[in-house]
Amino acid sequence: MDERETISWEAPEFEHHEKDVLWAWGSIILAVVVLAFAIINRNFLFAIFIVIAEVLILTWGHREPRDLTFEIDEKNLVIAGRERHALRDLDHFGFIDLGEQHELVELGLVFKKFRPIIRILVPRSSVKTVGDRLKLYGRKAEMEPTVVDIMERLLRF
Q1: How many angstroms separate the CA atoms of 46 and 34, rounded?
Q2: What global pTM score does this model have?
Q3: Does residue 51 lie in a domain region?
Q4: Closest by Cα among 151, 48, 138 to 130
Q5: What's the CA gap between 126 and 37, in Å, rounded?
Q6: Alpha-carbon distance 65 to 60, whole Å?
Q7: Domain identity same for 80 and 35
Q8: Burial of 109 (0-12, 13-18, 19+ CB in 10 A)
Q9: What is the pLDDT of residues 93-149, one digit of tens each?
C-alpha cells in the first residue's frame, strides 16, 4: 500500500439502537422520580436541569445517525470533508469489536494534544487497511469499552 494513497469509507456517525415506546416511557418515569427528589429537596436549579436533560435524551435518543465520509490521507484524518485531525499528533489507536452481529468496528484515536478520544466506525473489511496506515503515525494499543460505553449499549442509547 502506498502511504500517499487516500483511504476512504462511509459509516454512520454513531451506533444506532432502535428504541420503542417502552424505552421512552422508562426514561420519562426515571426523570419524574429524579425531578420529584429535586423538588422535595427544594433544589429547583437541579429540577430545571432534569427537565432539560430529559427533553434532550428523548430528542437525541430517537435521532437517526447521518452517514459520514471518513478519509485518511498522508497527513490527516478528515471527517465529512470539514473536520481535520493531523496524524502527526496521533499517539495511539485501537479497535473495539462491537460483536459478531455488527458489520462495523469502533476505532478509537488518542492524540498527543489534550483532547478527548475520537471514536469512529469502520467497516470490518477496512480494519486491516486503516490499521496499517495508522501504524505509520502512532502505535496500536488494545482498547476496551469503557463503563460508559457498556452502559450506553445496555440502555440502547
Answers
A1: 9
A2: 0.73
A3: yes
A4: 138
A5: 49
A6: 10
A7: no
A8: buried
A9: 999 888 777 889 999 999 988 778 889 999 999 999 999 999 989 999 888 877 887
Instruction: Report the distance separating Cα 115 and Cα 107, nearest Å.
Output: 16
Tally of CB atoms within 10 A around 47: 18
Length of the chain: 157
Q: Which phi and psi angles does 104 have, rounded to 5°?
A: -115, 155
Q: Are 70 and 79 in contact (CB under 8 A)?
A: yes
Residue 4's φ and ψ, nearest 5 degrees, are -90, -15
Cα torsion at 119, 13, 130, 90 (round to 10°)? -40
- Asked whether residue 45 is domain-assigned, the answer is yes
Q: What is the pLDDT of residues 76-87, one digit of tens each?
A: 999 998 889 999
**Which three three-digit cell numbers place residue 73?**
490521507
Residue 144 lies in a domain: yes
- Per DSSP, 75 falls in state S
Residue 68, φ and ψ in degrees, nearest 5: -115, 155
Residue 95 domain boundaries = 7-14+65-155
- Single-letter amino acid, residue 43: N
